[in-house]
């Protein structure tokens, strides 16, 4: 159902009525996914799916973590990656998670783990050269094209000389001519990202962005995760994890009046159901991710 029209003429889109989920309220941030219990569960499933795709590893940078090292997780969400790292490293390793929203931070944590509300765009001045390793995963739905260079410069600044960064991002999908709902949903996604100035093809730009920020030894690994019932239980887990990313975009899409693709909440939900069905029925469907590893030069002349 469409909400009542505003009484005065306005260029603002007509919001489509729905029950909104909870979102961050960080000034200026364009991040489009919710931060509620449902999102926490999704992030936990997504973490398992991604670790499995990495061969049950939390990171692939060539680093052995030792006492006294410090690790930063940028855009930590529920902190699930950091909590798993805490189980794998000595308690003398300092673990810091930052996010623009604290609602998903875990209620209990080991003593060497700390969480704070910061934006990746401006990390604390005192963190200069402090970290051996910075991890950042899936900020694609939060960073604008003009913000990526700044975020990478900040990561470079807070890394110690010789320190490593690992980023993981979704790869913009191409093709799928035989999947009409997928094509339509992709076009909607593109319109939403563009309306917010977000960089949907950040994975394509990342190697250059990393070099430009001063990193070296830049390496990229692509991951192709089978998605849908045709790929068994793992395909179903991948489907649930990533379908719920798109379901989480319902409020921003409906608040933006459907962006020319959607005219009711039911239509949005039925698009999501159709997407799941296409993944289930199309053997070979994949979710494509890229992992980027890069090093801050050991000494800067
Ligand atoms: C898709 S979630 C991923 C969470 C976590 N990295 C993971 O993989 O489980 C993206 C997270 O980035 C955070 N975020 C978005 N924009 C941010 C910014 N400018 N600075 C820091 N965090 C940000 C969001 O609040 C959200 O928790």
Automatic annotation (TrEMBL):
The organism sits in which domain of life? Eukaryota
Family matches, as Gene3D superfamilies? Vaccinia Virus protein VP39
Q: Which residues cross the membrane?
A: none
Coiled-coil positions are none
Offer an example of a GO molecular function term for this protein. Answer: methyltransferase activity
PANTHER family from the xrefs?
METHYLTRANSFERASE
What name appears for this protein in its UniProt entry?
S-adenosyl-L-methionine-dependent methyltransferase
What species is given as this protein's source? Gloeophyllum trabeum (strain ATCC 11539 / FP-39264 / Madison 617) (Brown rot fungus)
């Amino acid at each position: 159902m469409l909400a009542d029209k505003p009484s005065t003429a306005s260029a603002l889109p007509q919001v489509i009525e729905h029950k909104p989920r909870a979102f961050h309220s960080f000034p200026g941030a364009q991040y489009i996914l919710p931060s509620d219990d449902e999102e926490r569960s999704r992030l936990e499933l997504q973490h398992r799916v991604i670790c499995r795709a990495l061969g049950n590893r939390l990171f692939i940078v060539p680093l052995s973590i030792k006492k006294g090292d410090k690790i930063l997780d940028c855009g930590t969400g529920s902190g699930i990656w950091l909590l798993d790292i805490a189980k794998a490293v000595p308690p003398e390793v300092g673990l810091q998670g930052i996010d623009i929203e604290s609602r998903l931070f875990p209620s209990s944590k080991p003593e060497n783990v700390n969480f704070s509300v910061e934006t990746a765009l401006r990390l604390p001045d005192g963190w200069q050269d402090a970290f051996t390793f910075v991890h950042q995963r899936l900020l694609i739905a939060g960073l604008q094209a003009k913000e990526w260079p700044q975020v990478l410069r900040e990561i470079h600044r807070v890394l110690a000389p010789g320190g490593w960064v690992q980023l993981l991002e979704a790869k913009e999908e191409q093709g799928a001519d035989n999947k009409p709902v997928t094509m339509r949903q992709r076009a909607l996604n593109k319109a939403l990202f563009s309306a917010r100035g977000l960089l949907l093809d950040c994975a394509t730009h990342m190697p250059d962005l990393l070099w430009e920020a001063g990193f070296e030894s830049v390496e990229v690994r692509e991951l192709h995760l089978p998605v849908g019932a045709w790929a068994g239980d793992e395909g179903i887990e991948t489907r649930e994890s990533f379908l719920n990313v798109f379901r989480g975009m319902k409020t921003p899409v409906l608040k933006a009046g459907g962006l020319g693709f959607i005219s009711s909440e039911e239509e949005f939900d039925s698009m999501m159901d159709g997407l799941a069905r296409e993944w289930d029925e199309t053997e070979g469907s994949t979710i494509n991710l890229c992992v980027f590893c890069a090093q801050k030069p050991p000494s800067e002349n």
